[in-house]
From TrEMBL:
Region Disordered, annotated ranges: 737-766
Name of this chain's protein: NADPH dehydrogenase
Encoding gene (name): namA2
PANTHER family: BLR3436 PROTEIN (PTHR43303:SF3), NADPH DEHYDROGENASE C23G7.10C-RELATED (PTHR43303)
Cytoplasm keyword on record: no
EC number: 1.6.99.1
Pfam families assigned: FAD_binding_3, Oxidored_FMN
Organism: Streptomyces rimosus subsp. rimosus
Chain ranges of the FAD-binding domain: 5-329
């Protein structure tokens, strides 16, 4: 078997456990661990491990698992304490133990197996060890010297975040995982606390980890940047004296730190491999970095066992762990961002606040919280005014003068299926009619273009000719007659520099092979240099003509019977092009700072609002970030939303990106919703959240937490036109928020499947 001589740099839990597993799998292996600190030196106090991780440990090394079980403290509850309210949610299931205890167990196991442990010894450089060993495991932490020495290969990216935190301990055991919020004269401060030791000789009243965290500017205003370790612990104990019952906090080389997210392009270099914090970090608010490191060790040992060739084993290890870590890091980023913006949620009602905190990472949802603690979720729903037996997604919402029967929106989706002159046809009647019959509260058209030159492709629909209005009237009449209670909205836009391209399935954003029309933009910058046309930079008189095209189309949309109009200011199309500094390089009144870049989109909005019926709402779709350096930022998006709301937008439809081709989105489940959340809770403006919202559980979670008022779903409605009705059926909901069309009522229950049970054996012999 390969990797007979192994060096482990770093004596933390991940490195030690990797040594244990590799030695167990092959007792003949020569394994040495180097640790610069003494055996009982450690930073931090308690370690939380999930049942999943413990299951892996039990399977791989029952002896370590038995030792851990003897030391664990277990509990089920989470307490959220804010403004005098303590809200408790149960059924969560945690296990923790002291970090020193964990290290002692692993030290003893290493020695019993014959692993050499070198303490107070700096490891030779990884390159030196690699020359004399078959395998070098770099488990040397967040500041990994190995990663730094070979940065050109590993490609590390380190991102520092906006809060400062400190690890402390209390000499008694909390009876729950405790999140407590303190609103001080300096700003909001939060406590994360959990027990890690029960009462015993070492800790007569048990012990708890206490992490205190706050924004950098709060930390500085409080003068903590000038406090030593003792003074910091005393300050924290005073702020949270009620939680601590007046007891002190204990430190252990504790220092205020800004959390850093570590990501690497590669995890191995020759026969050297990164493990744990050296390879990746995840914010402590969703769990322990120790958990990830131990899971890394399990995966690495398994891959080495399954793949005789070392390069294959290391490639398999990275392929197995990278998606798991990426998912964890996405959840961790969502969680840490929530705590960074904690002050924005402070005024939420107490139960909503607690629910919002518990679901912040998007891993815990409405449905699994309801399974864990139905009473807690029922209380949150009652506080929010949700009728009994009604999922939050099926509560009505008033948007200007329009009341929607539920919170589901069929998101605008380009279909590229119009006649060559922009006229919607039978396809659009069937497509939009089917989604309207499917139960959504609001069905949106694709981007409907205000001129022939404003189309993206020859297959895009328009509202610039009389026959367009007639064709759209056919669609709205069908929706209103056959699906009463469903609203239908039109999204008006102009393609700008992204126009004159092929149908999506013929080559997205590729120019037409023939028959191209000229394209226009704020500045003469092509979407893809050398591929797309160089657009004509619009003059002020030409801006006036385009503004009038929007007005003409809005009048036509009103006559066509649409209930809502959305102005498309996202995704790099014309109005979006004015908003982004990456696409607007003008030096006149329509370019420069954000206020100037907003000028033309706001002029169009005002002109359209002036002719759009007062009793029908207008919304605006924006790209809340360009996902590119130097582009629109999340903070910019708040100001953009503020401006449109001040001009009369009933809601902001918050999307992201598609402005520049070199964008780097951070994809993941509901990945765009934090941008909507920020706008809603900072400005108090209704928002429509969009972006990989794919389940009814996601919708319920976002609405009940107060992160969104409406949720727009695109691909789920392509997969299932009756997505909303099926969501109601799956939740056993039959109320007014999701009425089945009369012809479909006999299908309002999930069809039975083939029998999956079998008769149980009547006799058991032997």
């Amino acid at each position: 078997m390969g990797a007979r001589k192994v060096a482990v740099i770093g004596g933390g839990p991940g490195g030690l456990y990797a040594a244990v597993l590799l030695k167990r799998l092959d007792p003949a292996r020569d394994i040495t661990v180097w640790e610069r600190n003494a055996p009982d030196d450690t930073f931090g106090f308690g370690v939380v491990l999930s049942d999943e991780t413990l299951g892996g440990i039990e399977h791989a090394d029952p002896e370590v698992h038995r030792a851990l079980r003897r030391e664990f403290v277990r509990w089920d509850d989470i307490d959220v304490v804010h403004r005098g309210h303590t809200l408790t949610s149960g059924g969560h299931g945690f296990a923790a133990l002291g970090r020193r205890t964990l290290l002692r167990i692993l030290h003893e196991r290493c020695r019993s197996l014959g692993v050499r442990l070198n303490f107070r010894t700096e490891a030779p450089p990884a390159a030196v060890l690699a020359a004399s060993h078959d395998l070098v495991i770099a488990a040397d932490g967040v500041h990994s010297p190995t990663r730094t020495a070979h940065a050109a290969v590993f490609g590390p990216s380190l991102t520092s975040h906006r809060c400062r935190y400190i690890w402390l301990a209390a000499d008694f055991a909390f009876d729950a995982f405790r999140f407590e919020i303190a609103e001080t004269e300096h700003g909001v401060v939060q406590l994360h606390g959990y027990p890690y030791a029960g009462a015993g000789p070492e800790h007569p009243e048990g012990a708890s980890t206490v992490i205190v965290e706050m924004r950098e500017e709060v930390w500085r205003r409080a003068g903590l940047d000038r406090c030593d370790e003792r003074e910091s612990a005393e300050w924290c104990a005073k702020v949270f004296s009620d939680a601590l019952s007046g007891r002190p906090l204990r430190s252990n080389n504790s220092a205020w730190t800004a959390f850093r997210t570590v990501v690497n392009d590669r995890w191995s270099h020759g026969n050297t491999v990164l493990l744990g914090d050296a390879a990746h970090t995840a914010h402590f608010s969703i769990g322990s970095g120790t958990k990830l490191a131990v899971e890394d060790a399990l995966a690495l040992a398994a891959c080495l066992e399954e793949n005789p060739a070392l390069p294959d084993a290391l490639a398999a290890y990275e392929a197995e762990r990278r998606p798991v870590v990426a998912s964890t890091q996405r959840a961790a980023r969502a969680s840490l961002a929530w705590f960074e913006d904690l002050a924005e949620y402070a005024d939420q009602p107490p139960r909503r606040f607690a629910f919002n905190l518990l679901t912040r990472s998007r891993r815990v949802t409405h449905d699994n919280l309801r399974l864990r603690d139905p009473g807690f979720v029922a209380a949150v729903e009652e506080e929010a005014g949700v009728p009994p037996g009604t999922p939050p997604m099926f509560t009505p919402f008033r948007l200007g003068g329009l009341t929607l029967r539920n919170r589901v929106v069929v998101s605008p989706m380009d279909m590229y299926s119009a006649d060559g002159d922009g006229t919607p046809g039978d396809f659009h009647l069937v497509h939009l009619g089917a989604r309207a019959l499917g139960g959504a509260g609001l069905v949106m058209t694709e981007m409907v273009c205000v001129s022939p030159e404003g189309r993206i492709t020859p297959g895009c629909t328009g509202l610039y000719a009389p026959e367009h209005e007639t064709a759209w009237r056919r669609v709205t009449d069908f929706v209103h007659a056959r699906s009463p209670g469903t609203a239908i909205g039109v999204q008006l836009g102009h393609s700008g520099r992204k126009g004159s391209t092929r149908l999506m399935w013929e080559g997205i954003d590729q120019p037409l092979p023939e028959g191209n029309w000229p394209v226009v933009a704020p500045s003469a910058l092509p979407y893809r240099p050398g591929v797309n046309q160089i657009p004509h930079a619009l003059t002020e008189p030409e801006l006036g003509l385009i503004r009038e095209q929007f007005v003409r189309s809005a009048r036509s949309a009103a006559r066509a019977g649409f209930d809502l109009l959305e102005l498309h200011c996202a995704h790099g199309y014309l109005l979006s092009g004015f908003l982004s500094p990456l696409t607007n390089r003008r030096t006149d009144a329509y370019g420069g700072d954000l206020a100037a870049r907003l000028r033309f989109p706001l002029e169009v909005f005002d002109a359209v609002r002036a002719v759009w019926p007062d009793d029908r709402p207008m919304t605006v779709r924006i790209s809340a970030t360009d996902w590119a350096e130097g582009g629109t930022t999340a903070e910019d998006s708040v100001e953009i939303a503020r401006a449109f709301a001040a001009h009369g937008a009933a809601a902001i439809d918050v999307s992201t990106g598609q402005v520049v081709p070199h964008e780097q989105p951070e994809y993941g489940r509901s990945y765009q919703t934090p941008f909507a959340d920020r706008i809603r809770n900072r400005l108090g403006v209704p928002v429509i959240a969009v972006g990989a919202v794919s389940s009814w559980d996601d919708v319920n979670s976002l609405v009940l937490a107060g992160r969104a008022d409406l949720c727009a779903l695109a691909r789920p409605h392509l997969y299932d036109p009756h997505w909303t009705l099926h969501a109601a059926a799956e939740q056993n909901y039959t109320g007014p928020g999701a009425p089945w069309p009369l012809p479909y009522q006999s299908g309002n229950r999930t069809p039975p499947t083939g029998r999956t049970d079998a008769p149980k054996p009547r006799l058991r012999l032997g």
